[in-house]
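FAQ

Q: What does a record look like?
A: Structure on top, sequence underneath. For example:
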């Protein structure tokens, strides 16, 4: 059915590449093969049972985990997408199945610590980001992983997630080049109400990382999309509430930054340029504009500003100034005709 090779002798066959633990594997299928055939091919090639196979497919599709919602999904629709296999190595699976060695001596049961809160430990394990995924094809993915770990372990973020019972499947970084246009840049995405959250960690030039506190505020914004998909009054109220809870819960007060100045770039913008994809799959929301995927957005009229906070109004005003500046700097069609 499928081969872990690059045999393209049949003109009607299709090829897929799957990234697993930093290594790319190539598979060839018949045109009518489906997602279940890919899972079977991976089991034959990598000795990983389909029950352990999770696929992170971008752009748009999202996280697919067994039992797959649509095992008959045609593989022909995935040829132009990036497929990452989220599964342990066969050696790790074998070690999990192997019974631990029986102790020779009798070990007394440990008593719970008087200073350990069982409920807090339960909340920390349940209400968190369960998988962290840096982009392995970008420079220094290990630094991105440390950044994601810092966000996951941030005391303020942990406090807010436990209070609202937020459980996010995947926290990952986004590639700035794939989420930048002449009019806007996407700082965060929330797919399927918290199944996957993507954050813009890197600078546009890929030479560093953006300010930690700015990214943390973006994460607060995306966490609010776990509850509200539209950017309405309820969404902004919840965003503000989460931001305050994160500030109060951060006992470190943002004291240290990983790598000193490594994560700070004063020319890479801040919260005022916030653009995101909302709490839904498909389309992008641009602050002060319309949506591309059918979800509601806020327009630039005076009625669209009703009920917004001072910070939100300042953000819209800043975008309007940038738009007007671009119109002044670029010659009109009539001027180009005269030239």
């Amino acid at each position: 059915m499928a081969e872990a090779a690059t045999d393209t002798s049949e003109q009607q066959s299709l090829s897929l590449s799957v990234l697993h633990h930093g290594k790319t594997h190539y598979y060839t299928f018949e045109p009518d093969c489906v997602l279940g055939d890919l899972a079977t091919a991976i089991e034959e090639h990598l000795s990983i049972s389909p029950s352990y196979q999770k696929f992170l497919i971008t752009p748009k599709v999202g996280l697919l985990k067994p039992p797959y919602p649509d095992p008959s999904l045609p593989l022909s629709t995935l040829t132009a997408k990036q497929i990452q296999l989220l599964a342990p190595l066969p050696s790790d699976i074998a070690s999990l199945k192997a019974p631990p060695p029986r102790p020779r001596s009798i070990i007394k049961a440990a008593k719970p610590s008087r200073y350990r809160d069982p409920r807090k430990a339960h909340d920390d394990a349940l209400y968190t980001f369960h998988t962290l995924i840096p982009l392995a094809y970008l420079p220094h993915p290990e630094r991105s992983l440390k950044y994601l770990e810092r966000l996951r372990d941030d005391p303020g973020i942990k406090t807010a997630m436990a209070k609202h019972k937020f459980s996010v499947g995947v926290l990952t970084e986004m590639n700035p080049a794939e989420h930048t246009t002449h009019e806007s840049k996407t700082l965060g995405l929330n797919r399927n109400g918290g199944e996957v959250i993507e954050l813009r960690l890197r600078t546009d030039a890929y030479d560093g990382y953006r300010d930690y506190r700015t990214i943390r505020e973006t994460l607060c914004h995306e966490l609010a999309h776990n509850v509200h998909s539209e950017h309405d009054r309820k969404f902004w109220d919840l965003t503000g509430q989460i931001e305050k809870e994160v500030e109060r819960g951060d006992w470190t007060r943002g004291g240290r930054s990983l790598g000193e100045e490594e994560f700070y770039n004063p020319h890479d913008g801040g919260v005022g340029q916030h653009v995101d994809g909302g709490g839904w799959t498909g389309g992008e929301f641009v602050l002060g504009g319309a949506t591309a995927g059918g979800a509601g957005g806020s327009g630039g009229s005076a009625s669209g500003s009703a009920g917004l906070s001072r910070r939100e109004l300042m953000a819209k005003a800043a975008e309007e100034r940038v738009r007007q500046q671009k119109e002044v700097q670029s010659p009109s069609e009539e001027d180009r005709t005269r030239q």
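Q: Is there anything notable about this one?
A: The first strand starts at residue 14 and ends at 20.
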